[in-house]
Amino acid sequence: MAMSDAGLVARQIITKAVVAKGSRMSQAVHQIATPHVPTSILGCWVINHTFTSQKVGDEVEVNGSYDIDVWYSYDDNTKTEVAKETVQYVERIPLIDQDSEVIGGAFEVRTRATEAPNAIEAKVQGGGARVVVEKAFSTEIIGETKLCVYVAPKCDDDDFDDKDEELYDVEDEIIIEDLK
Fold this sequence. Notes:
Elements: E1 9-32, E2 38-56, E3 59-74, E4 79-94, E5 102-125, E6 128-151, H1 162-179
Antiparallel strand pairs: 1-6, 2-3, 3-4, 5-6
């Protein structure tokens, strides 16, 4: 431990922290087969989205699936039906802001869909339906790292006087009153 001019001592703390992060927005085009040639698309939904993620090199790989339901009319708009298809996907999210001081190789990957898969366009094409789906992800890698902090050489209860405690009590009262 090194002593600075102010009498502070440097210490290293090992803690878990975000050691890398990334995000990605993407679009995918899907051709949905329909039992009948559609006249028009009446609606389109993307449902049942599930995914898992893992760190692969300098990226996070997201493996997932969702169902696309296309409601369409056929036979010159006299009948309707819903075509359903489950779509599998793999999305790669590049990692940025990677910490070079990571300790060990154990990581926790936290990925969330910041924009759930959503049909942004659905139209009749090629005897079926052409659907454009948009989705977005954000990911963080949690790992152990070192922090360097400076600490006072001595910290006693005497370092905090009654004025400080009164100040904290007043702030707490203000916060409590604001919440009512």
